Amino acid sequence: MMEIKSFTNFEKKMGTTTDYFISQRAAELNESATLAMSQKTRELKSKGIDVINLSIGEPDFFVPNFIKEAAKQAIDDNYSFYPPVPGYPELRQMIALKLRRDNHLDYDPSQIVVSNGAKHVIANIFLTILNKGDEVLIPIPYWVSYPPLVQIADGKPVYIKSDFNKDFKITAEDIERHITPKTKAFIFSSPNNPSGKVYSYEELKEWASVFAKHPEILIISDEIYELINFTKEHHSIAEFEEIRDRVIIVNGLSKGFAMTGWRVGYSVSSKTIAKTIEKIQGQMTGGINDIAQMAALKALSVDPEDCHELIEMKESFRKRRNFMLKALSEIPGIKPNNPEGAFYIFPEISDLIGKKFEDFVINNDDDLCMYLLNNANVALTSGSSFGYPGCIRLSYATSMLQLEKAVERIKKAISQLQ
Ligand code: PMP
Ligand code: GLU
Prior knowledge:
seven-stranded mixed sheet, single chain, Aspartate Aminotransferase, domain 2, binds glutamic acid, alpha/beta, Aspartate Aminotransferase, domain 1, binds 4'-deoxy-4'-aminopyridoxal-5'-phosphate, 14 strands
């Protein structure tokens, strides 16, 4: 009898749904805005609506043939068993070689862990280093998943603001001002998603001198857009000897090799951190898909400067960026920024706030994205999703034909605002 009574109480608490079972951590988590917008686009497309998706950062190119061949070979060679948790030794060796060849950095393969894409790499890092309440400094605008990944690991994001008028760059002083006794780590991406900004050697050097004074802080350097950089060269903050032990490099094959769906990323850290990441990964996923690892091995064996497929992709991105910058600057109310890498433009749109189309008032950047989705059938992501309201993010990782069409549609929809 007792049992039935408690069941009734339990049912009352639950209501008619299973909401009761959802943890506070999960309930408080934001959905990924980029993935949500892409899902919305897929739904509209399935209804026959011709939506142009500029909301997701995903190269439209196919995986280069030499990489596909390596994957086919791996299947024929029976790569089908549980892989080593931190990645195949030959792949970790190849990553160490790549770091020497492309970045002039010396690491031992034991410092490298291969994970299921750079997002998984970052999740592993935060689970490895954060205790409850530890603070992680995150410059704004940030990639949408940084704050939720900190929160999943019980950490606290602390934001460092930047300004459209200062090229969205933060300075060494900005970083220093936000450091507290609880600061455990700092994470940033260069080239940056969403601003496309690239930090120079000199700028990183100034940051490094701040971190040199704070041996209690780890620096997480997200270099996933390393190969899509239109400045002279890519620099890693790991180049600075005095802080190298505390830098964790995040990289992967999703962007530079157009391998988003293959899910291969890697971290480069101290041996102790790498070992702990391996322990967490061993409990959560085992190792990473065998076949994708063999494909990644082949991909990283080429020098990007000698690989025509990679050179062509980068040149296409450059042409598209130049086209978009010119076309967007001709639309009243849209002020493009000046991206130097990745494949995003992050224009300021505050002149459009308060404008109306029929009964629909554009009160913020989210409204503008909704308006453009519904009235121009172009999907974008709001600046608010990246912590910077008043901007929108356009990904130009799609064909010129689609970009030309998208710009025409945006122009027309904006001209209808009053
Ligand atoms: N970091 C940044 C800055 C990104 O834009 C992305 C894009 N997804 C990732 C990490 C994660 O990449 P991956 O697809 O390898 O998980
Ligand atoms: N990084 C990409 C983006 O910003 C992919 C989507 C995601 O994983 O969030 O659009």
